Amino acid sequence: MKVLVCVKRVVDYNVRIRVKPDGGGVVTDGVKMAMNPFDEIAVEEALRMREAGHVSEVVAVTIGDKKSQEQLRTALAMGADRAIWVEHEEAIQPLGVARVLKALAEREQPGLVLLGKQAIDDDCGQTAQMLAALWQRPQATYASEVVISGETVRVTREVDAGLEVIDVDLPAVISTDLRLNEPRYVKLPDIMKAKRKPMDSYTLPDLGVELPPLVERLETTPPPARTGGFKVESVEELVATLKEKGLV
Ligand code: AMP
Fold first, then answer.
1. How far is CA 153 from CA 138, 147, 158, 173, 178, in A?
2. Does domain 2-140+178-244 have CATH number 3.40.50.10330?
3. What is the mean pLDDT of the chain?
4. 8 CB under 6 A from ligand 1?
5. N vs C: which end of the chain shows fewer Cβ within 10 Å?
């Protein structure tokens, strides 16, 4: 079985986000970029499936500008077998990504498509669900455990009420939650090896996908500055302060 793993290039989670002075988005020039953390978990899970003998090929996919190839190389260095780069310069919304992934799923015929539960740049958390709907395959989102057995996969999902266990038929779409695994570190020799691994590239017309813009971003503004906090000396003072502020 082949697994498609989606990786998105985002601003590194350690970076303090700054809004452009003209409100036209966030500053990315000269800023450290990285693979979306939930996608790293997805790559790790796909590799573990291959190591356990359930999967024969792990294919990393990204849709983005030329620089997004760096994140594909990271996935290859982690151990993915090959990569697919879909060239697209402009920002892309979840429905657009889902359309591209559906076109790739039809070409590649994977048994599983693994995505992160959300990309930490826009925090949409929509792509996996939209892909499952377009591809007309079952979905299991927010996975904290995935066990493949034959033609089905048992997924433990992190939901508001606790954990939910569901069985879905393959091919399926799974999105990863934080506790699914801890991604491996990439070693230097693997980075060198990754340079020789195959990377196919497509344009949107190659895949027969059109992406009319559906969402218009009007302005990006930073959150209001927080007013400073203060320490209380006792429980009594805490309770009095909360009462004074009308919070209890
Ligand atoms: P989102 O719905 O935007 O929060 O993204 C959820 C997941 O979809 C991400 O964690 C990625 O696995 C995948 N994804 C979103 N955008 C892209 C992209 N441009 N290229 C590859 N995968 C993506």
1. 11, 6, 16, 11, 19
2. no
3. 95
4. yes
5. C
